[in-house]
Amino acid sequence: MNPNKSFIIDELYERVNASPFVIVVDYTGTTVPQFADLRSKLRDSGAECHVAKNTYMRAAMTKAGLPDIGAELVGQTAFITGDSDVCAAAGAVKAFAKAADKKDVFKAGVLDGEALDVAKLTTLASLPSREVLLAQLLGVINEPGTQIARVLNEKVKADGGEGASAPAEEAAAE
Fold first, then answer.
1. pTM, full prediction
2. Are 62 and 68 a contacting pair, CB within 8 Å?
3. Protein fold of 3-127
4. What SS3 string covers 129-161?
5. Exposed/middle/buried for residue 84 (C-beta within 10 Å: 0-12, 13-18, 19+)
6. 47-67 pLDDT, tens per residue?
7. Could you state, in order of their start, the residue ranges of all structural domains in the chain?
C-alpha cells in the first residue's frame, strides 16, 4: 500500500477510535459557504466534519472494529466525529439540512459500537442537548422533596404560622 494512503487511513483511524460516534452525511449539492456553516455549527457542539475517500474511511472503520456500514459509503460523503455529545452534533446536521433545504442528509452512523440507521439518527437529532437533559433529570430527582416542602409549608400556613411553635409551648407547659 502507498505510504501516503496508509498515513491517511491511520489518521482517520485515530479520529474514529477517539470518538464515541461517527455520523455519515451526504453533502451533494452543498456550496462552500453552506459547508463552512455546517463545520461552524459542529465546532460549537464539540464535533468535527471531515471529508475523506469512502475507501479510506471504510478501511479505518474496519481497523477500529466498528460495524460495517460500507453499503452507505457511496457518493459525496462527509464524516462527523466528536468528543461526547452525539445529540448536539446530529442536531447541528439537522439544522444545517433545514437551512439548506436538503431532505436526506443522514446516511448512517455508529454510536458506541452500534450501527445507526437514518431513523435513529433523526431521533437523536431531535433530542435536546446533554445539558438540557441533565437539567430535566435534576428536576425529576428534586420533585419529591419539593412536594414535601410544599405540603409542610401549607400545613404551617393553615395553622396560622404558629404550627411550628405550638408543640414547643406544650412541651414547656408540661
1. 0.73
2. yes
3. Alpha-Beta Plaits (3.30.70)
4. CHHHHHHHHHHHHHHHHHHHHHHHHHHHHHCCC
5. middle
6. 999 998 989 988 988 888 888
7. 3-127, 131-173
